[in-house]
Amino acid sequence: MPRKHPAFEPSTRFFGLLCVLVLCAASIDCGESCISGVINPPDNMLQVKTCSITVSNGTMNVSFHGAAGPATSSNSFSIRHIFVTVSGVEISADGSSRWDEIAPELENKPIQIDLLADDVTAEQRLVEAQVAPGNYSAVRLRVAPESVNANFAPGENMCRSAGVNCAVDWDGAIRSLIFALDGVQKGVHGRDAGAPDVLIASTQISGGLLRILPEAATNVDILFRADLSSAARDGESLVLTPIFGVESSNSQSTGVAADPNK
Hints:
It is built from one helix and 18 strands. By secondary structure, it is mostly beta strands. Strands 4, 5, 6, 9, 10, 11, 12, 13, 16 and 17 form a ten-stranded mixed beta sheet that branches.
């Protein structure tokens, strides 16, 4: 005679877990929170409580690398240095609606970098920041206005009386720097005095995005593309249209790094 298998009888704990899952699924967005519950016999009362899900940040190490050679589309002159003072670094997941500042300390203590460094392998460190894991498709460099000149210690500002952003000819002449971005010139001496924001879009980022993993370090290298940039003299100033690229690499630091897409 064939053996009869006992009918499956779900436990009250199973029903409690099912209810909790349905409750979370029915909500608009559980986000970084969760809901747990247990049915306690004999009255089978469901006890529900909320909890939080801890998501560990990743470490983002941002450095700048210059490019040897003149950044110009003309052979009539040659530039030895292009000094740009950075007062902020921002990242965005979509490159438009929301920007996260990852280097707020640069506002009061900006860093002056040389776009035409002697050694292209020389690393100019910008910031080490804790960043929420995810994929970011754009980087934005905030160029410091001339008013931050007072924040430099004596001898730190390589532009001297020309401001905080400048170009230096091979003969040592220092020229104020004007940025030509999206058809608008920003700088000093009668132009829009507002400090420019230099956008590095996803098309300029290797692989199209920066992937920040939890509990892992991501090295982000910002590269000045002298071959794609252009410069032209305008009186005693240099008008620069800069192009930058970004390369990144991930390395596990603490814990087990996980792909945020999985």
